[in-house]
């Protein structure tokens, strides 16, 4: 019984502290694993958030660029259409002006011809009358 008491004391003095130290170390290892896992999970989540932000930013930038390109095309098309319309209007104005000027000139020529014809007819008549008077006299 002395030996069993001695063994109990040795167990109590040596093994119990070792068991406690082992438990503390095991707890520390578990806590460290949990903390490392949390850090890794946090890093993964942060990376996902950053990647998502980058992708969203790229999509938004692409949309902005496409919108600018489309707006530029629309503006250029409007400018070109406006130029074509203005050119057509100017050409129409020039043509109308030419037609008007041609009409005026033709009218003047015709009026001049009529006047000249009247003057000539008058001259011929006056000459006939004069010749007839001379002959009669």
Oligomerization state: single chain
Q: What integer value in Å does the Rg equal?
A: 58 Å
In terms of DSSP E residues, the strand content is under 5%
Order of helix and strand elements from N to C terminus: H
Structural class: mainly alpha
* Alpha carbon gap, first and last residue: 198 Å
Residue ranges: pLDDT <50 for 5 or more in a row?
A: none
Shape, principal axes of CA atoms? rod-shaped
Number of helices: 1
Biggest sheet details: none
Report the mean per-residue pLDDT as an integer: 91
Describe this structure in words.
- With about 140 residues, this protein is mainly alpha-helical.
- Helix content is about 100%, strand content about 0%.
- It has 1 helix and no strands.
- The longest helix is centred in the middle third of the chain and has 135 residues.
- The radius of gyration is 58 Å and the shape is rod-shaped.
- The relative contact order is 0.03.
Secondary structure elements and pairings:
Blueprint: H1 2-136
List keywords for this structure.
1 helix; mainly alpha; rod-shaped; 137 residues
Task: Summarize it.
99% of the residues lie in helices and 0% in strands. With 137 residues, the protein is mainly α.
